[in-house]
């Protein structure tokens, strides 16, 4: 269901159109009582034109897939309007990795949990150094040939590993990956803005980026330099939050708080929230196909979806002011014909 305000982009060089913001249910299944609020989030997304829903067999050890499937069935939505993706982890606490044997079983188990005949995209959730990549890509193509998925991609692969995927596919005439799922936010820019640029140029690779708010640090909740009471005790994702905090705040607190509060001032000028500004900044990048949102409540999701309305407010002047606050633009690669740095892509 396409709405007036939602924007869509093609996922890589495929014919698949995805909303520029999407929903990931990584937090579903790790705690009791998540199914109902997850349905409210899914329903909110669909009513606002979001059509891309991301999950993984690893999330809640299968429970997140089950919940998403039940939510889709509960809402009675038109499956043709939705883009559903899942990911397969190298071990998933077994010994077979991303082997032909394991992936044949994994796709059937995922579809059974989600009560679906197919997913739109399957991802290799991490690179598996113990299984020949050729074997893994062969079975990814077999899954597509059997109409259990339409496309495949990678998640958290290095540029070299992704390039190897394309080389293998070109050698055998197989369907190549169309997308990579990686981290991207105002504090982590090197992957999208430097490392993958040759892949965007050569292969038209799409991206579905995760943690666009840096684990919530860019939401505005931490601008006073403190973690809200109970946040590190009440969530199964507390170790991830602590890791983000230590990496981006704790080690450089004064500078980080200056950046966060500077972003809040710009957001206030634009008439939006800091979270909306941070999300809009991510999807302003043309190399981002969609930014995957998480949410602990439907009203947070509503705020995040409205980031689409901020896109047109990010003028070159505003983007320059944001750059002055961030001070972390990756050094551009060199254009070796002219011996000058390549211009920024944003």
Automatic annotation (TrEMBL):
Pfam families: Aldo_ket_red. Residues 22-326 form the NADP-dependent oxidoreductase domain. One of its GO terms (molecular function) is oxidoreductase activity. Keywords: NADP, Oxidoreductase. Coiled coil: none annotated. Belongs to the shaker potassium channel beta subunit family. PANTHER family: HYPERKINETIC, ISOFORM M. This is NADP-dependent oxidoreductase domain-containing protein. It comes from Blepharisma stoltei.
């Amino acid at each position: 269901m396409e709405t007036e305000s939602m924007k869509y982009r093609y996922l890589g060089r495929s014919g698949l159109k995805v909303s520029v913001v999407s929903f990931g249910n990584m937090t579903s299944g790790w705690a009791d009582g998540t199914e109902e609020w997850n349905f409210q989030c899914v329903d909110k997304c669909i009513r606002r034109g979001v059509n891309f829903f991301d999950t993984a067999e690893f999330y809640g050890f299968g429970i997140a897939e089950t919940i998403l499937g039940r939510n889709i069935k509960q809402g009675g939505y038109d499956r043709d309007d939705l883009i559903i993706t899942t990911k397969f982890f190298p071990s998933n606490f077994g010994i077979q990795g991303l082997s032909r044997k394991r992936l044949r079983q994994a796709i059937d188990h995922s579809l059974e949990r989600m009560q679906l005949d197919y997913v739109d995209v399957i991802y290799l959730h991490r690179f598996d150094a113990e299984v020949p990549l050729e074997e893994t890509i062969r079975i990814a193509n077999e899954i597509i040939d059997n109409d259990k998925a339409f496309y495949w991609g990678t998640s958290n692969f290095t540029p070299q590993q992704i390039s190897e995927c394309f080389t293998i596919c070109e050698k055998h005439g197989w369907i190549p990956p169309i997308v990579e799922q990686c981290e991207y936010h105002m504090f982590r820019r090197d992957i999208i803005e430097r490392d993958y640029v040759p892949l965007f140029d050569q292969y038209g690779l799409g991206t579905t980026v995760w943690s666009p708010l840096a684990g919530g640090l860019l939401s505005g909740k931490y601008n006073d330099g403190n973690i809200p009471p109970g946040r590190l005790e009440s969530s199964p994702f507390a170790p991830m939050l602590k890791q983000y905090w230590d990496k981006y705040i704790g080690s450089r607190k004064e500078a980080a708080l200056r950046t966060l509060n500077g972003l809040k001032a710009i957001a206030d000028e634009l008439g939006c929230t800091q979270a909306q500004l941070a999300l809009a900044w991510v999807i302003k990048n043309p190399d981002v196909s969609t930014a995957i949102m998480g949410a602990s409540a439907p009203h947070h999701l509503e705020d995040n979806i409205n980031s689409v309305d901020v896109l047109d407010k990010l003028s070159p002047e505003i983007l320059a002011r944001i750059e002055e606050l961030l001070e972390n633009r990756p050094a551009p690669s060199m254009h070796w014909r002219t011996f000058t740095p390549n211009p920024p892509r944003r």
